Amino acid sequence: MQHVRDDRKEQENNVIPFIPEGDFYFTKGIEAFQKRKFDIALKWMKKATEAKPEEPLYLCQMSVIYTEIGAFHAANQLLNRVLQSSDYVDCYYLLANNYAHLGLLQDAKKFALAYLEQEPNGDLSEEATTLLELIDIDEDEDEDWDLEDEDELLIYQETVFYHMESMEWEKAIPLIEEMMTLFPEHKLAKHDYTQALFFSGKEDEAIQMEKDHLATEPTSLYSHVNLALFYFQQGSYSEYEMHIQALLNVYPIHEQQKLRVAVTLARTNRFMEAYQRFQLLSKPKLKGHPSYFRWYSVAAFQIGKENLARSLWQEGVKKYPKLAKETAPWD
């Protein structure tokens, strides 16, 4: 511990003032981070890095805080700074995770593979492997979107999207049935179909369809989303827990998928988790989604952030007049 001393004053007061070293600040930062007080955690971590500017552990932890608040570019700048002066292997996984959130899948893949190459049995090897699997799934799904250039599919997509976002299930069903016939490779339509079926009263049929799909694709994000929602609505909470736990451990790459998880958490009363997911979303990419404003507002209100809830609701109503006909979270 570094001590700042003045012998004369020390003799008079028996007090030895001191300047804490970086470890003290780092520990305080970790404590704040664990309590999810990210602003305070950042302040402590910045003090730690000022005390020890080249300590890779401090810089990496500060990058993790930036990642938690969605500041991925700031996080990446710190990680690249670490790699310029050291070979701190954890940086590779942290960079991979951040690039995945930014939608830069090839960069994410490169850094995840770099981590596993150097640390095949490292502390983050399981996370890196899972990330690579998610990227592969995402790339597979992208192949199914090759037909998007066709005007006919785009018209179907936009019309179904409008009805689904407006919760107009009966209008959505016949259109989705046509879509599934004309474009059988368009996977999302099948999950929209089960949701529309469930909320139009055909609950058992919808659940069975999703269970069948999950049996063939156990990692299907959309099946877990729908089954969590369906079982919650039915009051089958043990089944609901199984599927919601699968979602709590997944951080999708695309904004549309992130939104589905956030909305499902809000619709099943996991308001704090929903609020945290909504905070990570890119608002400009989701301005066409009434569900963003509807359920973000609900989640914010339920955890005591009434001003934010009202602001989101008012913005949503301004963009989507139909929202004004719905019950606001505080009514």
UniProtKB/TrEMBL annotation:
Gene3D superfamilies attached to this UniProt entry: Tetratricopeptide repeat domain
UniProt cross-references to SUPFAM superfamilies, sorted A to Z: TPR-like (SSF48452)
Name under which the protein is recorded: Tetratricopeptide repeat protein
